[in-house]
Amino acid sequence: MYYNKYQPVHQQNLTLIQYIFFKIIGLSPWTINNFGISRKCRKVSNVQNDICYLSYSGIFYNIMLFIGMVSLVLNFTFYQTMHHETRTDNLVTAKTLTGFQFLASSEIMILFAIYTFRQKVIIAVLNKLKSMDDKLQKCGVFGIDNDYTIHLIFTINFLLSCCFLITDSYHYPLLMILMRRSPAILYSWLIIQFTMLLDIIDKRFKILNSMIEKLSDIENQSETLPSILKMPLLNELVIHKITDIKSAYVELSEIGQKITDFYGLFCLMAIKFIGTASIFVTYFLMMFFLGAIVLSTMVWLTNGIWLLWMTFQIIVFTTYVTRTMKQSNNTGKIINKFMDQSTMDEKVEKEMVKFLRNLPYLKIEFTACDVISIDRTLIGTFVGTIATYLIILIQFRLSPPSG
What we know:
Blueprint: H1 9-24, E1 31-32, H2 34-37, H3 42-45, E2 52-53, H4 56-82, H5 94-117, H6 119-138, H7 149-169, H8 174-213, H9 215-222, H10 227-289, H11 297-341, H12 346-358, E3 367-368, E4 372-373, H13 377-398
């Protein structure tokens, strides 16, 4: 999703593939600077300040997706009136499931609209990240681990979504698949896209923390200098480094908060959808294994893959949120450790203290519209809520009729 010219060539190609995929499903309406992607034009790309731009063709494509989603909902509504599905369960009825599907599909139309007309937020974020990477590279300290974890996550999610659609195709017609599974597909990749941006933020925090740790190396090297030159050179160099780190940290915190604010509403919609759908899916699977209802092999297999798929997304997403928060919180610990182990000049100490005092105000709050915390506690909330509703549904379902 985010192209970085300092990455190896194969990682750049993977990023390009991911960008194209997100563009196809409507989650990347912007355009990436072609000079930045082409390795043959590296020299030209240095002149370009931005890596992402507003794309009118992307806006038109997303508008077409929006219109297509509206048509799909209308066709599904007509289909449901003509074909009444019978379901063996008398508690969670077909009408209830149809209403839930209609609501979820309507929310997807809102998602396309917001994504299309608020894409400038993400464009600005990606361009700021590119600018930050350029500054770090000039400082000679830029270095990102060749970690393929995020690419592996992308691949696993792609395979799970394909398995989900393939198994579904054995039981439902194409119209039903598009209507029923579009929310799950889009919410799934929305979460993965957010996770990929969190990975970028986490790695930049890691670089800044590494820069702070290396400040002690500067002091150790200065011990070989003559006493007359030692303190002036040390103070000037360390204060300059602290200023650069503090500026980058402030900018990175603002970027992280903008990303969280942009995806906040989408996360809230995704959490509501995944939670409600998980209750329904788990309920029918439990009823099937208890012998209360009859499901075909492909239906319960599809539902099982869906649960595995959603569980994978929530675990990965909350893990990256928690990891980014820990990396950000480590900065204060590293500064305190540096100040305890080093004998520094009063000016240098003042700069470090100022930086330390500003850290609480630069903390990123990862929430869904300030309603739900989206760190690891979200898993506990999911499990507790789903378990509570399942107990209620099963009690009503298995209780003997009165009279």
